[in-house]
Amino acid sequence: MDRKTKEETVASLHRLFDETALLVVAHYSGMTVAHMTELRAKMGEAGASFRVIKNRLTRLALEGTKFHPLNTLFTGPTAIAYSADPVAAAKVAVDFAKTNRNLVVLGGALNEDQLDPDGIKALASLPSLDELRSKIVGMVSTPATRIASVVQAPAGQLARVVGAYAETDKAA
After folding, report:
1. What DSSP string runs through 36-78?
2. 144 shares a domain with 71
3. Which pTM was predicted?
4. Which of 66, 71, 65 is nearest to 53 (CA)?
5. What range defines the domain where residue 139 resides?
6. Are 52 and 25 in contact (CB under 8 A)?
7. Which tens digit of pLDDT belongs to each residue from 6-65?
8. CA 154 to chain centre
9. CA 84: distance to chain centroid?
């Protein structure tokens, strides 16, 4: 990799770190290409990304960002998982690490808060942003359906009364 490419990579990573809410750092030693492809696909489905990067370039890109304290984690075969959603990357990485011992979560950060592996696991246990949104929509729409049924009930009762009078008129 020539110098210009390295500079572009560092600048690109720096922008990525500025735009990302969650960064998970992991070792991937011993993972096969098939496992890496599977992990990347799962990350993509969740709205997250998984990327293998050079440690030295990453440490340079971390300078001046909110993730700077993580620079000590970048030793050995290191990869990052990141997402704008504060839970997605952690959830997929922790779930994948349960079934594949070659992926070891080292830690990460949520905005300025540095997290150890247990902190990442705790974060992964939280519902994702989409799950929270669906719960809120469900809570908001439930009262609306109740109001609609209450408003429609008198009209239904009136229709039944009119129907009953019509039946009595036909019988007479």
Report:
1. HHHHHHHHHHHTEEEEE--HHHHHHHHTTSTTGGGGGG--SSE
2. no
3. 0.72
4. 71
5. 127-172
6. no
7. 899 999 999 999 888 899 999 998 899 999 999 999 999 988 999 998 999 999 999 988
8. 45
9. 7
